[in-house]
Amino acid sequence: MASLKSIFGQTIGSLVCTPGTVVAVDAVGSRFKQLVVKTDVAAGRYAPGDKVQILFENGDFRTYTPFAVDVAAGTVSFLVFVHGDAPGSAFGRSVVVGDAIQFFGPRGSLPLSSVVVPSVLFGDETGFAVARALFDHRKAQADARFVFEVDDVAESTAVLERLGIAGVSTLIEKQAGDAHLQGVVSAIGEATAARIVLTGRAQSLQLLKALLKTSSSSSLTQTTRAYWSVGKRGLD
């Protein structure tokens, strides 16, 4: 029997959400799925860094950033990071071509269109799509750089190669006690940038901001968006 949350979510979803159909599912490594969704894609509707929230059968929403929009084909592409037992991961494991989905948005999340100076973006696996969106937005100047903390460098490299941004990305493997974040600070300092965009795990961002205050990158203009936090679900 469906839960009250599920019934409520689906009822509200039918009123306010945009319907779509999954037309392509491509596994990238063991923990990523690239989805292409056929939906209403009006010209100018999506801006770099926008987010959409996909509604799941249990009534939960999870947030994703479209990294490619094809107005002519009427499709939007997403990258799903499949890890743990969260609703988003369950969706990523089970989604197949032909599935109907509902999502709310797009709506603004990170104002990437305002990032008009040499920039560096920090994040983790949840920020790969945002990085691709920023890269596409800045490709005329080709001055965006990315630094990621990741669980598996080899797997993440393969994903970033698929997205076309491996060559402008530095990957640093996560270590116990967040000891790797000092390496992140060094990598950020090596990038020629006037602005840093911080995304990903809330705990990493808190520690990283403190480290940056005492580094050569302390003068960088910062934009921050936590996507998730240990012990919490559906943060963004």
Please describe what this structure looks like:
Helix 5 packs across helix 6. This protein has helices at 4-16, 87-94, 128-138, 153-163, 181-190, 202-213, and strands at 18-28, 32-38, 51-55, 61-64, 68-70, 75-81, 100-107, 119-123, 144-150, 169-173, 195-201, 221-228. The protein has two domains: 4-107, Elongation Factor Tu (Ef-tu), domain 3, CATH 2.40.30.10; 112-228, Nucleotide-binding domain of ferredoxin-NADP reductase (FNR) module (Rossmann fold). The protein contains six helices and twelve strands. It is globular and about 50 Å long. It has a seven-stranded antiparallel sheet. A five-stranded parallel sheet has the order 10-9-8-11-12, with helices on both faces. The model has no long low-confidence stretch (mean pLDDT 83). It is 28% helix and 33% strand. It has 236 residues and is α/β, with parallel strands linked by helices.
Provide a short characterization of the protein structure:
This protein is α/β, with parallel strands linked by helices and 236 residues long. Helix content is 28%, strand content 33%.
Strand coverage percent: 25-35%
Number of domains: 2
* Mean residue pLDDT: 83
Order of helices and strands: HEEEEEEHEEHEHEHEHE
Strand runs, count: 12
